[in-house]
Design a protein that fits this description.
heterodimer; A: 241 residues; Alpha-Beta Plaits; 2 domains; 5-stranded antiparallel beta sheet; 7 helices; 9 strands; B: 72 residues; mainly alpha; 4 helices
């Protein structure tokens, strides 16, 4: 038998009375440690690979617990052989778990993705730039100088693209940041993904945050906005600080 | 605000996989090295990694970018 773990919660009490089911339909339960607990279920037999179904079950358990507890979700897939091992981990990382639970109490995470047409935006910048630049004509008889100037022009176009991205991101963030406790912004991580953002929001301010997103979404910018949440605070756990 | 939730369901699976495969407290991997006397097992690590790569490829294939350029 193995013990599969889902999350740390800010309670050492029993949970669910066996009604919350996890992987393979097994009931989940709380292993208390000091003033918190780790939610697990027993698994008879091995799971060689985690399937999509397992991952959804993992998330489902964490989300059910999120309704009543502050949760620190564990990354899927961690198995223990014995309860003593579970308690060993709890003891070793108790300080980290405690500080995260204190910081994340009553908080949920939202995900925002903003997609723009990166190639088209770059094309527009290039067009504007070409019409205002005469360097090629001026340096036509100097290949070395043309090479350097070409590099410099490319750098200027990339810089213009980043500046435009920063303006767009700041505009969006201005809507959403007012209701966020913390945020993580990943900018221009692919041609079309302008922003992949995570916002940590107090449960009582969820409605405000969603309304802010709705206002942002109707902005006349031809961007695509993707919203998800509320999630357990996967992106806001800090270990080892 | 129900429409927000409806829309979020469209991308929920990808968002779930992004999180449960790659985020949250990690009590395996690097951390398990420091817990030398605990025999933690991380199930199907190679399979999970390939799933992440697959999902990353699928993710943006399923989310078409706007046809028209930004109008800022």
């Amino acid at each position: 038998m193995k013990i599969y773990s889902y999350c740390i919660i800010d309670s050492k009490e029993r949970i669910g009375d066996g009604h919350i089911r996890g992987l393979n339909g097994a009931p989940v339960y709380n292993i208390p440690y000091r003033d918190m607990g780790i939610v697990v279920n027993n698994l008879n037999g091995d799971i060689k690979d985690l399937t999509k179904s397992h991952l959804l079950e993992h998330e489902n358990v964490v989300e059910m617990l999120m309704k009543n507890f502050t949760v620190l979700p564990l990354r899927s897939g961690a198995l223990f052989n014995r309860e003593e091992e579970v308690l060993h981990v709890m003891e070793k990382f108790y300080g980290d778990f405690r500080s995260n639970l204190d910081r994340l109490i009553n908080k949920v995470e939202f995900g925002i993705k903003i997609i723009w047409s990166g190639d088209n935006i770059r094309g527009e910048i290039l067009k504007d730039h070409a019409s205002s630049s005469h360097f090629l004509a001026a340096t036509k008889d100097s290949p070395g100088k043309m090479f350097i100037m070409g590099k410099f022009e490319k750098y200027k176009i990339e810089r213009a693209l980043k500046e435009k991205a920063e303006i767009c991101i700041a505009f969006a963030d201005n809507f959403l940041n007012r209701f966020a406790f913390e945020k993580k912004l990943e900018k221009l991580i692919s041609t079309n993904l302008l922003l992949n953002a995570f916002y940590l929001v107090d449960k009582e301010r969820q409605r405000d945050f969603k309304e802010a997103f709705e206002l942002l979404r109707i902005a006349p910018d031809n961007f695509k906005y993707l919203f998800s949440g509320p999630w357990p605070p996967y992106n806001f756990i800090r270990m080892g600080e | 605000m129900d429409n927000v939730y409806t829309r979020s369901k469209d991308i929920a699976l990808i968002e779930i996989l992004d999180r449960v495969l790659d985020k949250g407290v990690v009590i395996s991997g690097d951390i398990v090295i420091s817990v030398a006397d605990v025999d933690l097992i991380y199930v199907g690590l190679k399979v999970l990694l390939s799933s992440v790569e697959t999902m990353n490829r699928l993710k943006w294939a399923e989310v078409p970018c706007p046809e028209s350029p930004g109008n800022l």
